[in-house]
């Protein structure tokens, strides 16, 4: 089959309709679905590109326009209905007056120019073709406006007494006179079709071109023809006469629709049916009033839309200014300045609530970022310090091994070999201690290597540590006492923790005995290493109630601010007798101390206040880091502060349990687990082994061997 190219233009495949017989036609996609979808997508994309402020202003303008148009239309409809109702009532109320006027049989127009009256006479109970128009309005320029009336055949019983609207026909006064029969104006004369032509130019029942019986408006108005004749709605000639030379306003008023009422006319004396009377009023005044009201509503509506649009634009712009500031702040933060914050706004507004939430989030992000930076820096420093600390003993081992190899064949090699082996042994021991400490820290970080089910007597641990310090430094004055909380007396004397008396209160706790002993030993070891032998030291133990949970306490950093917050919580707990009981251990020395800017760093791994003398003291910089990890594993806090009069003070807070109403705040015995202090400290394999080890290390020639784990 040959297909003309014009039939295939714009197609890439032949249609299925031209296929072989019996082959089913391919489904045709819905026409217009693709283009409509693309148009919708394009329209939505264009809308998405418009700014939020422009969208809000546009929506406000649309709402104002729709509201103004709706209100104006409603007012127009209400006023129009009201005025139409008043016109109907006026027509009905004038019915009796018109009947009296008609009975007087006037021979000329009465001059009641606002009313139109037409009488159609009846004979033998039926309407005839005889009618007359005793009253009709005459406008400026001798223009006569009359309503289009139904024929006799179109008049029904339902139309009687019910006004209806009909269109108007405009003629001249001369035409009215020429169309009259020459006797009484309005008297009809038979026309060629057998109908009667009334004085107004309307035909009778047979030749009427008037409106239908339902009284509906034909919607066509009368306009004067160029030759001076007036034509009705259908375009037929109504009358001839002198050309009408009236103003445009007069012609518009004459073309206005009419409100007409049909009433049955009966003789009051005999009650005989005499015909029907049409009473009409022009709606020109009503239409003019409605048009004036419409123009007023349009003017006011435009003013409202312009004013409302301007105010809405200003308000929206003012409202969205904080969002622009948020955008600028976010751009600065994205550039790397995490210290930027969103400007303040009242939190009772949406923007203010968003600003407060964003500032909180930015604070957390900045804090997390700084913590991450600190963690990364600590990790780098930790790896570097660990490598350095491990490299030193490894280098010593390697060096002494090479020295032994070189001097093996020389005289006196045996003595020198023993010396090299001793150096190698000391280096390996130092490396072993370092590796064990690193392993302990790693296990503590993972939550392993600690048993929290033991009953530990803190009084026994502190007493043993004080005895060891006496043995290591016989010249040092070491005293003990009970930790007591001193509430603040005024703003200049804040609350503090002091050591009173010369004995410690018996305190037990549930935890890991060996790890807690390691904490106390490391702190006492630092006093032994880094303070003069004759400087005094004081150790205290007691119970303090504080209105802070152990979880909150363990998350606080080890600095002076954390201790101040604990003291504030302790003052609340002391006053209200509520919160948690904490075992407080306090170690005061009067040595050289640590600068304020370095106190928070002494708990970092491999940190030493005097790096040049760290190796001479035998420390690795891991002792206080281990102590901090153990204390936090017990949900406690350890802080380093300055001693009054110079020196360094370590304060350890360990939770015991909720405050009991009968427990004194910082004085009496507290049994954290119900175990006896004496038995928990002096019995059991663990206690005996610790005591034996401690007694075996009191040899003065091996100074620091008991503190081999303190750094």
TrEMBL record:
Keywords: Kinase, Membrane, Phosphoprotein, Transferase, Transmembrane, Transmembrane helix, Two-component regulatory system
Listed Pfam families: HAMP, HATPase_c, HisKA
Bilayer-crossing regions: 56-75
Localization, UniProt: Cell membrane
Record flagged with keyword Membrane: yes
UniProt biased composition (Polar residues): 242-251
Region described as Disordered: spans on this chain: 1-32, 178-251, 664-711
Biased segments, Basic and acidic residues type: 687-702
Annotated Histidine kinase domain residues: 385-658
Coiled coil stretches, renumbered: none
Recorded catalytic activity of this chain's protein: ATP + protein L-histidine = ADP + protein N-phospho-L-histidine
GO MF: phosphorelay sensor kinase activity
Keyword match Transmembrane helix: yes
Skewed-composition ranges (Low complexity): 14-32, 186-195, 205-241
InterPro entries found in the cross-reference section: HAMP_dom, HATPase_C_sf, HATPase_dom, His_kinase_dom, HisK_dim/P_dom, HisK_dim/P_sf, Sig_transdc_His_kin-like_C, TCS_sensor_his_kinase
PANTHER family cross-referenced by the UniProt entry: SENSOR HISTIDINE KINASE TRCS, SENSOR HISTIDINE KINASE YKOH
Name this polypeptide is given: histidine kinase
Biological source species: Bifidobacterium callitrichos
């Amino acid at each position: 089959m040959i297909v003309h190219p014009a039939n295939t233009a714009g197609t890439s495949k032949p249609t299925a309709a031209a296929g072989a017989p019996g082959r089913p036609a391919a489904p045709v996609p819905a026409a217009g679905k693709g283009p409509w979808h693309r148009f919708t997508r394009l329209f939505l994309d264009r809308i998405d590109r418009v700014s939020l402020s422009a969208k809000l202003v546009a929506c406000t303008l649309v709402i104002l326009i729709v509201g103004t148009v709706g209100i104006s239309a409603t007012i127009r409809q209400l006023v129009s209905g009201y005025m139409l109702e008043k016109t109907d009532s006026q027509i009905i109320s004038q019915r009796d007056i018109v009947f009296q006027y008609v009975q007087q049989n006037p021979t000329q127009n009465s001059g009641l120019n606002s009313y139109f009256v037409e009488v159609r006479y009846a004979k033998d109970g039926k309407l005839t073709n005889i009618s007359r128009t005793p009253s009709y309005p005459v406008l400026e320029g001798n223009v006569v406006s009359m309503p289009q009336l139904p024929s006799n055949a179109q008049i029904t019983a339902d139309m009687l007494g019910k006004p209806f609207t009909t269109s108007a026909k405009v003629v001249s006064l001369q035409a009215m006179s020429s169309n009259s029969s020459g006797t009484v104006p309005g008297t009809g004369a038979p026309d060629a079709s057998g109908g009667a032509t009334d004085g107004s130019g309307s035909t009778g029942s047979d030749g009427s071109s008037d409106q239908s019986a339902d009284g509906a408006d034909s919607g066509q108005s009368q306009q004067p023809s160029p030759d001076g004749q007036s034509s009705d709605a259908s375009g037929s000639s109504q009358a001839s006469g002198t050309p009408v030379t009236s103003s445009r306003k007069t012609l518009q008023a004459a073309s206005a629709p009419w409100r007409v009422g049909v009433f049955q006319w009966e003789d009051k004396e005999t009650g005989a049916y005499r015909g029907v009377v049409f009473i009409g009023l022009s709606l020109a005044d009503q239409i003019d009033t409605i048009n004036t009201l419409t123009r007023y509503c349009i003017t006011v509506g435009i003013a409202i839309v312009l004013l409302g649009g301007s105010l809405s634009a200003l308000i929206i712009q003012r409202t969205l200014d904080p969002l622009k500031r948020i955008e600028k702040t976010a751009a600065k933060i994205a550039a790397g300045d995490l210290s930027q914050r969103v400007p303040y706004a009242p939190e009772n507004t949406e923007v203010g609530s968003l600003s407060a939430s964003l500032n909180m989030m930015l604070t957390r992000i900045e804090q997390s970022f700084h913590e991450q930076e600190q963690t990364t820096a600590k990790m780098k420093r930790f790896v570097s310090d660990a490598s350095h600390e491990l490299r030193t003993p490894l280098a010593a081992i390697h060096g002494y091994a090479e020295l032994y190899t070189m001097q093996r064949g020389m005289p006196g090699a045996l003595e020198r070999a023993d010396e090299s082996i001793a150096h190698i042994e000391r280096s390996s021991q130092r490396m072993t201690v370092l590796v064990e400490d690193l392993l302990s820290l790693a296990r503590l970080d993972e939550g392993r290597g600690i048993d929290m089910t033991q009953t530990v007597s803190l009084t026994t641990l502190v007493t043993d540590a004080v005895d060891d310090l006496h043995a290591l430094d016989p010249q040092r004055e070491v005293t003990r006492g009970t930790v007591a909380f001193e509430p603040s007396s005024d703003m200049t004397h804040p609350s503090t923790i002091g050591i009173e008396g010369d004995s410690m209160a018996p305190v037990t706790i549930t935890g890991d005995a060996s790890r807690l002993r390691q904490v106390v030993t490391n702190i006492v070891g630092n006093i032994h290493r880094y303070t003069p032998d004759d400087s005094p030291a004081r150790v205290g133990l007691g119970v303090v109630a504080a209105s802070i949970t152990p979880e909150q306490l363990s998350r606080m950093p080890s600095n002076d601010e954390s201790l101040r917050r604990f003291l504030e919580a302790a003052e609340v707990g002391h006053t209200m007798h509520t919160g948690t009981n904490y075992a407080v251990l306090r170690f005061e020395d009067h040595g050289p101390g640590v600068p304020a800017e370095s106190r928070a760093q002494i708990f970092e791994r491999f940190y030493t206040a005097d790096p040049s003398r760290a190796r001479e003291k035998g420390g690795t910089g891991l002792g206080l880091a281990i102590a901090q990890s153990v204390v936090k594993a017990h949900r406690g806090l350890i802080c380093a502060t300055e001693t009054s009069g110079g020196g360094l003070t370590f304060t350890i807070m360990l939770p015991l349990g909720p405050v009991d109403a009968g427990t004194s705040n910082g004085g009496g015995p507290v049994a954290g687990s119900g175990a006896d202090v004496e038995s928990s400290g002096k019995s059991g394999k663990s206690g005996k082994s610790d005591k034996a080890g401690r007694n075996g290390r009191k040899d003065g020639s091996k100074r620091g061997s008991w503190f081999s784990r303190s750094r």
